[in-house]
Design brief:
7-stranded mixed sheet, alpha/beta, 9 helices, single chain
């Protein structure tokens, strides 16, 4: 499974990743994520501890992290987690290819900054246009897509109430409209805080696991249905390996009923 994160430098992807890993390490409803290498396990665990102390995580940024999806303590699927840093004007074929082939996509935006920085909002619109172009090139696989708004614990309150969600998603209105009318895309909004009191950090990964596993199961089941063209031996083996995950992945939706979706 390939998961892609996309966002500007400083948006909080590294902090998010370390806290998400800490939350998923011991498992949620049987699903967990573990780093394949001991050095990466130590790096992510140490980074999460730093974030919980209110500090920025140290260590070098890795563009690709090799993880394993576990279910009930057993490794079942390799997960390649890619961190793409968005740069103004970036639209290279490598990035577009990564987004168009990913099994799950997270797009990150700094919530407090986008409310008061119009050039940043304009840059987010350009990033959204790039994402929309990549989504248009995808095949028919069911694909989860999450808009992740970071640093939500730093948002100002208007009249004592929360900032309206419409103000946050406005730079991505075109992407949201595209996802909402595309049958094979499932969109969500996650409001996260990655500090000493984390909030919402499991929403993006659980949304992706739910839809990516269920979607792959539906595709494989259709390919293996009697009367259809013969599926490859690899597809049959993949179905056998993933079949125990289909029902548990369906049940993850009980944890996501509160998530704004489109």
């Amino acid at each position: 499974m390939d998961i892609v994160m996309l966002g500007h430098g400083g948006v909080g992807k590294s902090s998010y990743l370390s806290l998400m890993y800490a939350a998923m390490r011991d498992g949620i409803q049987g699903f967990g994520l573990r780093a394949r290498e001991a050095s990466l396990r130590e790096e992510l665990t140490s980074a999460a501890e730093e974030v919980l102390r209110g500090r920025r995580p140290g260590g070098g940024r890795r563009e690709v992290l090799e993880l394993l999806l576990h279910y009930q303590g057993r490794a079942v699927l390799p997960v390649r987690w890619r961190d793409h840093r968005y740069l103004a004007g970036q639209g290279g074929e490598r990035l577009l290819l990564g987004l168009s082939r990913a099994d799950g996509i997270m797009v990150f935006a700094d919530a407090p900054r986008l409310l008061g920085d119009e050039p940043y909002r304009a840059d987010l619109r350009r990033m959204g246009a790039l994402v929309q172009r990549a989504l248009a090139e995808r095949d028919g696989r069911l694909t989860p897509f999450v808009l992740v708004f970071t640093k939500c614990d730093r948002l100002p309150s208007a009249g004592g109430g929360p900032v309206p969600l419409d103000s946050l998603v406005e730079p991505f209105e075109d992407v949201i409209a595209k996802v909402a009318v595309t049958e094979n895309l499932r969109g969500a909004v996650a409001l996260v805080a990655c500090g000493h009191e984390p909030a919402g950090v499991t929403v993006p990964v659980l949304w992706i696991l739910h839809h990516a596993i269920v979607g792959r199961g539906l595709a494989l089941h259709a390919a293996l249905t009697p009367g259809r063209a013969l599926a490859s031996a690899d597809e049959a083996a993949e179905y056998e390996r993933l079949e125990p995950l289909f029902a548990p992945a369906e049940r993850l939706v009980t944890l996501l009923s509160h998530v704004p979706s489109f």
